[in-house]
Amino acid sequence: HAGPRGSYSERGALDHVDRLLVYKRLDDLPLVIVVGIERGSRFVRWAVFALVALGASTLLALLWLWLMRRFARTQVLQAQLLQDLQEQAASLRETRRISRIGAWSWALDTGRVTWSDEVFQIYGRARCELQIDQVMAWLHPADRERLDVQMARTMRDGEPLETQFRIVRPDGEVRSVHVRAERVEQAQGQFLLRGI
Question: What is the pTM of this model?
Fold first, then answer.
């Protein structure tokens, strides 16, 4: 073989086994080192397995890295969305406070009424658990029947409610309140009257 290093295949003259041989000529010496392995030997099969395992583990590592980057980006987006939502909620609370507009809801199946802080302030009441009977008792007696009819129509037909009525605060002061509301289906057959 002519070059200073190389490889070649050869079938053994005595055992007739195909071998892959690698050689190198040593500089300034009349020696050639030849190393060979049997083709199809366990080493070759192990080397193929090792290369496949290395390739698979590299792909898994790259997939893991990609997933971790996506997860980190999702976490950042979720944190940003949460911050935006908190800022919007704070802005809405501030808007309600400044404009003295309150929000309320009435669960028709339980009779439970939920008020925002502004509605409690409008009615002059301390924050508490409410039922619709309590709220109706705080209305001006001359407006109760009319409002009851209007709310029944909204609950039955689903048409929006817009009306004005008077309330009587604990100190006896009478105030006029403008209300807008609509019926909202919470779950199948369960309705909520929600308004401002």
Answer: 0.56
